[in-house]
Amino acid sequence: MPSVHVSSQKAFSDAINGQKLCVVDFTAAWCGPCKAVAPRFEKLADQYKDVVFLKVDVDENQAIARECGVTAMPTFHIYRAGTKLEEVVGADIVKVERLVRQHASSGGSGGFPSSGGRVLGTGAPAPRSAGGQQGPQSNYLLWGVIGAVVLWLWWNKEDPSHAKL
């Protein structure tokens, strides 16, 4: 099913508030990167029949773009039942494909929430994990142990009795 070009606030609102996963491409006629990713976006629309794919021209629908906080093109939003699950700013169509695959397979009914859940008592979105990626802090322990061993070896270099193991 090809993507749907949004022509009104009501059509946009109806689509993102539906129960189906909804992928929105905020685009502009003058945007080169938007034109470059358009064929792959259409291919996704053909591939995922149970997902709604929208194209919003930001020049024709400035109010929608402003309401959604779009400041760069292309920008992609993924919604389910009125909740924005994901945002991709820029022409990273590979990331969009991965997110569509991830959220389309989650189905949105039963099981664990695809959006990461909510903080109990507040309704705020739960913080996302780093997905197994480790930052520079994970190396502090390793460097600390290496430093301690080097220091111990240096400290005990004069006393051969400690060197016998």
From TrEMBL:
Keywords: Disulfide bond, Membrane, Transmembrane, Transmembrane helix. Residues 104-135 are annotated as: Disordered. SUPFAM superfamilies: Thioredoxin-like. Residues 1-105 form the Thioredoxin domain. Residues 107-120 have a biased composition (Gly residues). It comes from the Eukaryota. The chain crosses the membrane at residues 138-155. Gene3D superfamilies: Glutaredoxin. PANTHER family: THIOREDOXIN-LIKE PROTEIN 1. This is Thioredoxin domain-containing protein. It comes from Powellomyces hirtus. The lineage of its organism: Eukaryota, Fungi, Fungi incertae sedis, Chytridiomycota, Chytridiomycota incertae sedis.
